[in-house]
Design brief:
Order of helices and strands: EEEHEHEEEHEHHEHEHEEEHH
Structural class: alpha/beta
Number of strands: 13
Radius of gyration: 19 Å
Length: 336
C-alpha cells in the first residue's frame, strides 16, 4: 500500500524521526479500581518531534498506523503540532495502545498492547519514503529497534543511509525492559551506535552501547570514572557527542574537546513521563540553531523541566518564547 501524501512543508525538513506512536490511555489512580481514562498520543520519537517543532523547526515524523480511529487520532494530533507526517496505514493490523497507571505520586507503570501492531511493521520502504523530504538530523531510538525484526532492519538501514548521506544521526538508547532484555538490546544497539554522531543515554544505559563496568552493572547508574571511560570508547568509535541524562541530577556531554555539565532546573515535579524526550528535543533544537554544547545542554534542561512540571508526555512542552518562563521567575509566580 502506498503511503498517504505528506502535508506540504516549506523548505527542507530540519529534523526527521521515525518510529511507533501509540494511543496512551492514562489513569489518575490504580487501573484495577477502574475510573476515567484520558486519551493521549505516546511515543518517544513523536514526543521529540513535537518538542522540536514547538521550538520553531521544520520536523517530519514517519511511521505506520492501523486503519482505525486510534491511528486517525495520532495523525491528527501530530499534524496539529505542525509536523509533516509521512505515514502508511496497515488495514490488517491495529494501532498500538498502552495504559499508563499513576499508581502512587511517585510511581507510574506502563502496560503495552503493541505486539504485532501496525507500528511494528515499519520497513525499508517506509524509510525511503520518509527520506524524500530531506533532513539535517535523523533522530532514532532503541525502542523502534526492539519492536520487530522488520523494524530493527528499518532502523539500521535508516541510520546507515543517513550517515552515508552526511546527516547528523541522533540515537537515544531509550531502553525498555518490557520490550527486550539488556543482552538483546546490547547486541543490536552497540553496532548501531557506530552510525551515531550524537549518542544519548541515561547513566544506566551506557553499558548497552559501550563495554566496561556498566555492561555488567545490570542497569545501575555507573561511577563518574566509568562514565568517562565509556564515553571515551564511544568517541574513539566515531561518536561526536555522548550525552548522558541523569534526571534530577542534571545532564552531561562528553566530546573530544572536553566535558560539560548542567544541573536540572528546579521545578515542582508532577509527571516525569516524557522528560528524557523533552530534554532531547531541547538539545537537538539548539543543535539545529548552531548553538554550542553548553547552550544545547541548557535548552535541554529547560525543556525537561517543562515536561516534569506539567502532566502528559508532551502536552506541556514549551514554545520558543516560553523558554524564559523557567529560571527567570520565582516558583509559583503568576504573570499578569
Amino acid at each position: 500500500m502506498n503511503p498517504d501524501p505528506v502535508l506540504p512543508v516549506l523548505g527542507t525538513t530540519e529534523l526527521l524521526t521515525l518510529g511507533e506512536s501509540m494511543v496512551s490511555l492514562r489513569s489518575a489512580g490504580p487501573l484495577s479500581a477502574g475510573g476515567a481514562l484520558g486519551m493521549h498520543v505516546a511515543g518517544a520519537e513523536s514526543n521529540v518531534a513535537v518538542g522540536v517543532a514547538r521550538l520553531g523547526h521544520r520536523v517530519g515524523w514517519a511511521g505506520v498506523v492501523g486503519a482505525d480511529p486510534h491511528g486517525e487520532f495520532i495523525l491528527r494530533q501530530l499534524r496539529s503540532e505542525g509536523i509533516a507526517v509521512q505515514h502508511r496505514k496497515d488495514a490488517s493490523r491495529s494501532t498500538g495502545v498502552m495504559f499508563l497507571e499513576q499508581r502512587t505520586a511517585d510511581v507510574t507503570r506502563a502496560f503495552y498492547y503493541r505486539a504485532g501492531s501496525a507500528g511494528s511493521t515499519l520497513g525499508r520502504d517506509d524509510v525511503d519514503a520518509a527520506f524524500r523530504s530531506g533532513a539535517r538530523v535523523l533522530h532514532l531510538t532503541g525502542i523502534t529497534a526492539a519492536l520487530s525484526q522488520e523494524a530493527r532492519r528499518a532502523v539500521e538501514y535508516a541510520a546507515a543511509r543517513a550517515a552515508g548521506e552526511g546527516l547528523d544521526v541522533s540515537l537515544d538508547v531509550n531502553y525498555r525492559s518490557k520490550l527486550w532484555s539488556r543482552d538483546e538490546a546490547r547486541a543490536v544497539l552497540t553496532p548501531l551506535a557506530r552510525y551515531a554522531s550524537i549518542l544519548i543515554a541515561s547513566d544506566d544505559e551506557l553499558g548497552l552501547v559501550a563495554s566496561g563496568e556498566a555492561a555488567a552493572s545490570g542497569g545501575a547508574a555507573v561511577s563518574g570514572d566509568a562514565e568517562t571511560a565509556m564515553a571515551a570508547e564511544l568517541l574513539d568509535r566515531g561518536v561526536r557527542e555522548v550525552v548522558v541524562k541523569r534526571g534530577a541530577a542534571g545532564a552531561g556531554v562528553h566530546t573530544a574537546a572536553g566535558r560539560w555539565e548542567t544541573p536540572a532546573v528546579p521545578v515542582t515535579s508532577i509527571d516525569t513521563v516524557g522528560a528524557g524526550d523533552a530534554f532531547t528535543a531541547g538539545y537537538l533544537s539548539a543543535l539545529l540553531d548552531g548553538e554550542d554544547v553548553a547552550c544545547r545542554l541548557q535548552r535541554g534542561a529547560l525543556a525537561g523541566a517543562f515536561a516534569v512540571s506539567t502532566a502528559g508526555d508532551w502536552e506541556g512542552l514549551p514554545r520558543r518564547d516560553e523558554l524564559a518562563l523557567l529560571g527567570a521567575t520565582p516558583t509559583g509566580t503568576t504573570q499578569r
